[in-house]
Specification:
By secondary structure, the protein is an alpha/beta fold. It is 51% helix and 13% strand. It has 3 domains: 146 residues, no CATH class; 89 residues; 162 residues, no CATH class.
Length: 423
């Protein structure tokens, strides 16, 4: 495959446009190309990105000094060139430059008020992506090229989630426990204060003054021991309460961060996928294991379970091992997302098999921390990073592997499970 052929290969399904066009616009960065060269499922795309990477590293071998206009001017001999919007939308798009500013571009092209030079200028200089796409589409029509309009939208992805997620329920439960502990601690201190006050003020003819009481060394040390015990009775519960409170606050914060990460991921999924997909959030499967499935995706290519991790701190995944940076050393993490998501995928597969839905469930760990990158080295399970989630979702499309009837059956089964849990 040469460079010209590589530039015509389409990118992933989330943005199915020629690589050359996306490269010229700056959408395809070197890191994105390297990712596709290693992880793209489509062998043509993988080869094309490798060719482009090689041409960027060795521009003298590319054979072309100006590749930018190749995709527009080439004669296709019956083949079709994809465009980023429908021709109807391209024609209705308003021209942004004087003297025809605000007029539909299609009308201006028909009346020949806009020339190919004007459209070329819009492709180069327009800030609005829609104007550039419309200019490309109308330019191809003027050059009598056969164009391929994007497939009509399949609607909006369906999001199904319980009213109260597993994370919210855990946060509420931990907050309630912390409240009971705090109330019990305050009640203990008040009770102790009341008892001491009553004993001190109790009328007793045998009471002696403090001077009389400590007149002997034995009585003095007895009083001192009593004060030490009293201080311990006040300090020890306070110390234990603080330890428990700090632990509960940390656990509540972890659940809150996890919930924020899941919501961020779900919103990005909604923006990327269409109505052929359903996304489920926080599904609790029946059985002894009460842990929930963070996100389940059901679409034409199959079923995916996403274990979302929004850990704070520096982590790395080597094979099947997860470690965190502590001081100068790496320590094994208590939680192992790789094993957790594999277990969840198996649980979901067995749950679906009860209705004769024998499907492979794809496990994925999704790192949702945007600020601190996850260090990876030969991960045993697929790891997706939040900033590359749209590309990962576009990469999984390999045609319809499960029928619409099967998808409907899976969706209904999971939806009934969520409804039963809320009752």
């Amino acid at each position: 495959m040469n460079l010209n052929e590589a530039r015509k290969i389409l990118w992933l399904r989330n943005n199915p446009r020629p690589l050359g066009e996306l490269l010229d616009e700056g959408y395809l960065t070197e890191s994105r190309l390297e990712w596709a060269a290693k992880r793209a499922y489509d062998p043509n795309l993988k080869q094309a990105t490798q060719v482009i990477i090689e041409s960027l590293k060795n521009p003298s071998r590319s054979g072309k000094t100006n590749e930018k206009n190749v995709d527009i001017k080439v004669q296709t001999s019956g083949s079709s060139l994809p465009i980023g919007m429908s021709l109807e939308k391209a024609r209705a798009n308003l021209w942004p430059f004087l003297p025809y500013k605000g007029q539909p571009m299609g009308t201006l092209v028909d009346s020949k008020q806009l020339t190919l030079k004007d459209l070329g200028y819009a492709i180069e200089a327009a800030w609005d992506e829609k104007v550039r796409q419309a200019a490309i589409a109308l330019t191809l029509i003027r050059l009598e090229q056969v164009v391929k309009e994007p497939a009509p939208s399949a609607g909006v992805i369906r999001l199904i989630k319980p009213e109260r997620t597993y994370s919210q329920r855990r946060q509420n439960r931990l907050t309630l426990i912390e409240g009971f502990l705090y109330g019990g601690f305050i009640a203990f201190l008040l009770s102790l204060l009341i008892i001491i006050t009553i004993e001190f003020l109790k009328p007793n003819s045998n009471n002696h003054s403090i001077t009389d009481f400590i007149s002997s060394p034995y009585d003095f040390f007895l009083l001192l021991g009593g004060l030490v015990i009293l201080i311990l009775l006040c300090w020890l519960p306070t110390y234990l309460f603080n330890l428990i409170s700090i632990k509960l606050d940390k656990e509540i914060e972890e659940y809150r961060l996890g919930e924020e990460g899941e919501d961020r991921v779900v919103q990005l999924i909604i923006q990327t996928l269409d109505g052929r997909w359903s996304v489920f959030q926080n599904i609790s499967l029946p059985g002894r294991n009460k842990g929930d499935l963070d996100i389940v995706l059901v679409g034409p290519p199959g079923v995916w379970v996403l274990e979302v991790k929004n850990f704070q701190g520096e982590y790395r995944n080597i094979g099947d091992t997860w470690e965190y940076h502590h001081g100068k050393n790496w320590k094994t993490a208590k939680a192992n997302p790789s094993r957790q998501v594999l277990n969840n995928a198996l649980r979901l597969k067995n749950f679906l098999m009860a209705d004769h839905l024998n499907l492979f469930v794809n496990p994925v760990v999704l790192w949702a921390n945007e600020e601190i990158p996850l260090l990876l080295e030969n991960p045993s399970t697929p790891i997706w990073l939040y900033n590359r989630l749209p590309d990962e979702l576009g990469n999984i499309w390999q045609g319809e592997k499960i029928s619409e009837a099967e998808r409907q059956k899976i969706t209904e089964k999971l939806q009934k499970l969520i409804q039963a849990e809320e009752k």
